[in-house]
């Protein structure tokens, strides 16, 4: 019994580093906060209830920033206090999501405001402190702060004709180890 408990204590620091940093660094995101944006160009498509932002797109909501080359903003058609109610952001081209103590990068990203979930696809990289995890798809639950990466979905580089090819479905990464001196 003591040996099992000692093994558990020895193994704990390696697993706690990633999860403790995740839990301590991320609080519940305020998905009801206003969304501020900037872009080189905007095209409003009112009949389709969407806006297309292009060129150096930057969107900020509370403590989170989403950057991309292009973004489509879908809204419900309802207007509250003079503002349309945004339901979804679809981003492409060098997508970066920055939250306190956490940065995620990918080729594509979807922020579903109703579900409060961000899904990132294609050459995903999630960095937090000294920890980095890479894969094909990342899902971030903004209510819990839980981030899940898997090797499926769109992989790495572009193939001929602009198609995206798979990287083999593996999750890789580096976890930092605390100094034990």
Can you walk through the features of this model?
- The chain is elongated.
- Helix content is 13%, strand content 53%.
- It has a single domain (35-174), classed as Lipopolysaccharide (LPS) transport protein A like domain (lipopolysaccharide transport protein A fold), CATH 2.60.450.
- Strand 3 (50-61) and strand 4 (64-80) form a beta hairpin.
- It is mostly beta strands and 181 residues long.
- Strands 1, 2, 3, 4, 5, 6, 7, 8, 9 and 10 form a 10-stranded antiparallel β-sheet that branches.
- The longest helix is centred in the N-terminal third of the chain and has 24 residues, at 2-25.
Portion in beta strands: over 45%
CATH architecture: Sandwich
Largest sheet: 10 strands, antiparallel
Radius of gyration: 19 Å
Q: From the 3D structure, determine the CATH topology.
A: lipopolysaccharide transport protein A fold
Summarize this structure as a short list of keywords or feature phrases.
disordered N terminus, 13% helix, mainly beta, lipopolysaccharide transport protein A fold
Helix-strand blueprint:
Elements: H1 2-25, E1 35-38, E2 41-45, E3 50-61, E4 64-80, E5 83-99, E6 102-112, E7 117-128, E8 131-141, E9 147-150, E10 172-174
């Amino acid at each position: 019994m003591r040996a099992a408990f000692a093994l558990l204590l020895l193994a704990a620091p390696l697993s706690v580093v990633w999860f403790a940093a995740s839990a301590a660094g991320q609080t519940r995101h305020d998905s009801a906060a206003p969304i501020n944006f900037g872009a080189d160009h905007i095209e409003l498509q009112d009949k389709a209830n969407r806006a297309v932002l292009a060129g150096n797109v930057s969107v900020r909501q509370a403590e989170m920033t989403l950057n991309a080359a292009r973004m489509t903003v879908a809204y419900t058609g309802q207007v509250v206090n003079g503002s349309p109610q945004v339901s979804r952001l679809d981003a492409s081209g060098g997508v970066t999501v920055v939250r306190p103590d956490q940065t995620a990068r990918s080729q594509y990203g979807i922020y579903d405001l109703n579900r409060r979930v961000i899904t990132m696809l294609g050459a995903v990289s999630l960095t937090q402190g000294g920890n980095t995890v890479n894969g094909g798809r990342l899902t971030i639950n903004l209510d819990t702060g839980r981030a899940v990466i898997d090797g499926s979905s769109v992989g790495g580089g572009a193939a001929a004709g602009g198609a995206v090819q798979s990287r083999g479905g593996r999750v890789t990464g580096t976890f930092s180890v605390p100094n034990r001196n």
